[in-house]
């Protein structure tokens, strides 16, 4: 997402966000931009959108185009063809947003809906409260995950009169619930079914009573434990 500052009567600045990154695809499944002249692409984009910020051809043969203004964003999303080549245009799935974390005790009793309503002028498009499991129950915390409609994370936001530093959000490592290894999920796993409790292959952990052993670090704990040294390295 790009952004453009506007200044309302209150004197406080707010931002108008717009998608900055777009994927351009050829309409035919068998055709890509691999065999299209870069001169043709550049001239067509300049004529229909303007002088875009960057254009890059991906390995797939699609084009990744970055624009620098709301006007260019509106122009590019309307494109149906590029130099007589039928195309489709979509905002990039991840490059137009970013996630950060704030910790504000004063917002503990506010609903995430109310917080989102108040922070929306600062390019916040989603608010999620972090909960932790204690004694078998999920307990809400003062920590909030904010999704911003722009790729660059702000250093801080204003929650009313409180200046809140924004930290990058680092998600928990992806662990396969079948093979117990990090870096992939169960649907994409080609590994052997492995117990998350004892690290032995061939059975699940539901009814396992064997001695605990971690598949990843070989420590005396189940593979899903957050005390695992391998989990901490991945995190």
From TrEMBL:
InterPro entries from the entry? Znf_CCHC_sf
Task: Tell me the domain of life.
Answer: Eukaryota
Q: Name one GO molecular function term.
A: zinc ion binding
User: What is the protein name given in its UniProt record?
Assistant: CCHC-type domain-containing protein
Q: Which species is this record about?
A: Araneus ventricosus (Orbweaver spider)
Q: What is the lineage of its organism?
A: Eukaryota, Metazoa, Ecdysozoa, Arthropoda, Chelicerata
